[in-house]
Write a structure and sequence with these properties.
The protein contains 14 helices and 28 strands. It has 484 residues and is an alpha/beta fold. Helix 1 runs parallel beside helix 2, helix 1 (16-29) crosses helix 13 (455-473) and helix 5 packs parallel to helix 7. The chain starts with a strand and ends with a helix.
C-alpha cells in the first residue's frame, strides 16, 4: 500500500485544496507517483474525469498537479447542492440519488464501502496518496458515520495533518479547541499541524507555536505565507466569489451575475487573467452595470430555480436593456438554457416547477431529461473557426430555430445556438474560454489586441510556484519523511 497523509482543516476554506495540489506537484517534481484523494466533496464545480464520470474540479486540478490522469475514484462521493438543504449525490462518478441533509447523514455509512474501495484503487501502484478532508473534524455532531474526515482516517489508517488559517484569526484556539473536543482515538491520528496564510514576520508566531505545542503536544510542520501562485489557480468553491474584487479599469467590462446555484464558474478564470478585461461579478442586490459590453451567464445546478432568482433580482430587465444598447451575451450550459423561450421539466427533475419561461433572447426551448450528459469533448467554434477543448455536464435537450446557427461543433455534432444578429450565443461546452485562440478572437471582436496567451501553461507555472513556496516554508525533516 502506498504511503498516505491526510490534510484536514480546523474549518472550511482554510486552504487545504491548494496545499494538497502544491504537495502533489512537489512530489511529482521529485519523481514520485503521487495521487490526490478526497473521500467526500461538496461543490457544484465539477469536472469530467479521464475515466468518465464526475469529480470535483479541485481533484481534477490536483491530478493535474500530480501529473497523473484524473479518475472518479479520486473523489468517490461528490455532493452537488440543488437547494438550501438538498443535494444530488454522485458516487464513483455516477448519479446515486438525491438527499436532504438529515437523510444524507443516514446514507453515509452505506457509502463508506465505496470510499474505501476507491481509496484502494487510487493507492494501487502509487508511491504516495495525499488526501484532503472536508470541513473540519471538530464538527463532532457529524462524527457518527463520518466518511470525510476522521471516519475515513481511522478506517483507512491514514495519519492526519491539521491545517489552521491564521488570516481569519483565532488559529491557536482553533487548533487547541480541536484537540480538546476530539476523542482519544481521533486525536491519536493527528501527526501535527500547518499554519496557513500567514502575513508578515514568521518569527512573531514563535510563541504561538510553543503555546499550541504546550496544549496539544503536536509539532508544527510549517508556517505557510499567502501563496502567490494560489491566486492564479482555478478556485474550488463559490465561497471564493465573495472575495473576488471587481476588476480594475480594463478596456472590456464583462459582467457575470452570481446566482445561488452557480456551477463551474471556473469557466471564467481565463478571462480574469486577461489584462484588458474587467470581470465584474454582480451579486445579489446589485445591478448589471450599464457600461458592460458582454454579459456571461455561467452554469447552474438548478436552471429553473436560478431563473426565478434572476428575475427576483431584476436582472432580466437589466439584461434586456443591455441587449437594446447593443451589448452581447454568452450563456454556458444552464446559462444557455436560461436564454431560451421556455424550460420544461415534465418529470420534476429540478423540483416542483414543471415549466418556466426563459429570458427569451434565443429562439430555443429546453426539456429536462433524466439521462445526464457527462463527457470530455473536442469541439470547434463556428463563430471564429477556433479549436475548443472542454467538457459537458448537463441535463436537458435544447431545440429551436436559432439552433440552425450552432455556436460550436462538439464531437462532430452541432451544439448551441446563435441569434440572427450574432450578439446572443449559447453553448453546452464548459471550458470555452480556456481555448487561447477562441479567447483571443473574442477579445479581437471587441476591438482589443487579443494576444494568444497560454492559459494552461500559466496554471502549470502557478502549480510549480506553489510547490516551490511550500518547499521553502514547510519543515524539511517532515517533507523528507513524506517524500523520501
Amino acid at each position: 500500500m502506498a504511503r498516505a497523509i491526510m490534510l484536514q482543516g480546523t474549518g472550511s476554506d482554510v486552504g487545504k485544496t491548494v496545499l494538497v495540489a502544491g504537495l502533489c506537484r512537489l512530489a511529482a517534481n521529485r519523481g514520485l507517483t503521487v495521487r490526490p484523494f478526497k473521500p467526500q466533496n461538496m461543490s457544484n464545480n465539477a469536472a469530467v474525469a479521464d475515466d468518465g464520470g464526475e469529480i470535483g474540479r479541485a481533484q481534477w486540478l490536483q491530478s493535474l498537479a500530480a501529473r497523473t490522469p484524473s479518475s472518479v475514484h479520486m473523489n468517490p462521493v461528490l455532493l452537488k447542492p440543488q437547494s438550501e438543504n438538498g443535494s444530488q449525490i454522485i458516487v464513483q462518478g455516477k448519479v446515486f440519488g438525491q438527499a436532504k441533509g438529515r437523510d444524507y447523514q443516514r446514507l453515509k455509512p452505506e457509502l463508506l464501502g465505496a470510499v474505501l474501495e476507491s481509496f484502494e484503487k487510487v493507492a494501487a501502484g502509487a508511491d504516495l496518496v495525499i488526501v484532503e478532508g472536508a470541513g473540519s473534524p471538530a464538527e463532532i455532531n457529524l462524527r457518527a458515520g463520518d466518511i470525510a474526515n476522521m471516519g475515513f482516517a481511522t478506517r483507512a489508517g491514514v495519519p492526519v495533518v491539521l491545517v489552521g488559517d491564521i488570516d481569519r484569526g483565532g488559529v491557536i484556539a482553533s487548533l487547541v479547541g480541536t484537540h480538546a473536543i476530539l476523542d482519544e482515538g481521533d486525536r491519536s491520528m493527528i501527526a501535527g499541524y500547518i499554519i496557513n496564510k500567514f502575513r508578515g514576520d514568521v518569527s512573531l508566531f514563535d510563541d504561538g507555536i510553543r503555546a499550541i505545542e504546550g496544549f496539544t503536544g503536536w509539532p508544527c510542520f510549517g508556517v505557510v505565507p499567502w501563496l502567490q501562485g494560489a491566486g492564479r489557480l482555478p478556485a474550488e468553491d463559490s465561497v471564493v466569489l465573495e472575495r473576488l474584487a471587481k476588476g480594475g479599469t480594463g478596456a472590456l467590462k464583462i459582467a457575470v451575475p452570481v446566482l445561488p446555484r452557480i456551477a463551474n464558474f471556473d469557466d471564467l478564470d481565463p478571462l480574469r487573467t486577461e489584462p484588458d478585461v474587467e470581470l465584474v461579478f454582480v451579486r445579489s442586490g446589485e445591478r448589471i452595470p450599464a457600461d458592460a459590453s458582454l454579459v456571461v451567464l455561467p452554469g447552474s445546478k438548478s436552471t429553473i430555480s436560478d431563473l426565478a432568482d434572476f428575475r427576483a433580482e431584476g436582472w432580466d430587465r437589466d439584461l434586456r436593456a443591455h441587449v437594446r444598447r447593443g451589448g452581447r451575451v454568452i450563456g454556458i450550459c444552464g446559462g444557455y438554457q436560461m436564454l431560451g423561450r421556455t424550460v420544461h421539466d415534465p418529470l420534476g427533475l429540478e423540483g416542483g416547477t414543471l415549466e418556466t419561461p426563459g429570458l427569451g433572447l434565443l429562439d430555443i426551448e429546453t426539456e429536462m431529461e433524466p439521462e445526464k450528459t457527462v463527457r470530455n469533448s473536442q469541439a470547434r467554434s463556428t463563430e471564429y473557426d477556433a479549436p475548443l477543448d472542454g467538457y459537458q455536464i448537463h441535463l436537458g435537450i435544447t431545440r429551436g430555430t436559432d439552433c440552425i446557427r450552432p455556436s460550436a461543433v462538439i464531437d462532430g455534432a452541432p451544439d448551441g445556438a446563435l441569434s440572427a444578429d450574432g450578439r446572443i450565443m449559447g453553448t453546452y461546452l464548459h471550458g470555452l474560454f480556456c481555448s487561447d485562440s477562441y479567447r483571443a478572437r473574442l477579445l479581437q471582436s471587441f476591438g482589443l489586441l487579443g494576444e494568444r496567451r497560454n492559459y494552461r501553461e500559466s496554471v502549470e507555472q502557478a502549480l510549480d510556484d506553489v510547490a516551490e513556496e511550500l518547499e521553502r516554508h514547510l519543515d524539511p525533516h517532515w517533507l523528507a519523511g513524506l517524500l523520501g
